[in-house]
Amino acid sequence: MLQVPVFSMDGERTGELEIDPVVLGERVRPKLLKQAVVQYLANRRRGTAATRNRSRVAGSTRKLYRQKGTGNARAGAVRTCIRRGGGVAFAKGKQMRRLARNNAILAKITSGNAFIVDNLCFETPKTKRFAAMLGALGANRGCLVALAGDEKNAWKSGRNLPATDIRRVSDLHGYEILRRKKLIFSLPAFEVLRHDPVTLRMRDEGTTSE
């Protein structure tokens, strides 16, 4: 089990929480992380990037000819990946992105650059207080803060700080995690990670999306 330190907003260590490395991919895969970063940057430039899978190929879904009696090998629809012009067999999709995201989190934890802030809450938006918290945690030179989604005042307090990204935990991407030196979880966000490492959604939320 991996130990993730827990700090107060004043920078005092108050304990630690455990997470199973298996739920984050068990080991860090540098090639996968590089692939995720390259894909993310390419998508930002092009805007219309998409793998041409079977659903994107024009053509009928009707079986080309009957299964038996023709003397030919069995064949399905014209859009199958084994025919010329068909879709890509193993298109890069959600599973690759999710594994890369979790691998990036695992890399931050194993390098000692990820931690949890207990009681990360603000009655009103206070940018100065948020900046003081990052200074106490040694994260004022670049960090990504993951929130569960209901800490609106915390998001408003840190959104304008330089070299600081504020994201819902369900919206994390491998590139954004690797881009900043420190990764900070609010306690509710870390609990979401531990209990649902696939979609990173609260249990009572509806449908999931990335």
Stated plainly, the CATH topology of the largest domain is called: Ribosomal Protein L4, Chain: A
How does the overall form come out from the CA principal axes? elongated
CATH architecture group name of the largest domain: 3-Layer(aba) Sandwich
User: Kindly, what is the distance between the CA atoms of the first and last residues, rounded to a whole number of angstroms?
Assistant: 27 Å
Instruction: Estimate the helix proportion, in percent.
Output: 25-40%
Q: State the domain count.
A: 2
* Oligomeric state of the chains in view: single chain
The strand count comes to 6
Largest sheet: 6 strands, mixed
Describe the strand arrangement of the main beta sheet, using strand numbers: 2-1-3-6-4-5
Q: Helix count?
A: 6
The low-confidence runs, each spanning 5 or more residues with pLDDT under 50, are 205-210
Class from helix and strand fractions: alpha/beta
Name of the CATH first level of the largest domain: Alpha Beta
Q: How do the helices and strands follow one another from N- to C-terminus?
A: EEHHEHEHEHEH
| Portion in strands | 15-25%
Describe this structure in words.
With 210 residues, the protein is an alpha/beta fold. The protein has two domains: 149 residues, 3-Layer(aba) Sandwich (Ribosomal Protein L4, Chain: A), CATH 3.40.1370.10; 36 residues, no CATH class. Helix content is 32%, strand content 15%. It has six helices and six strands; from the N terminus they run E-E-H-H-E-H-E-H-E-H-E-H. Strands 2-1-3-6-4-5 form a six-stranded mixed β-sheet, sandwiched between helices. Helix 4 links the parallel strand 4 and strand 5. Helix 3 packs across helix 4. The chain is elongated. It starts with a strand and ends in a 15-residue tail after the last helix.
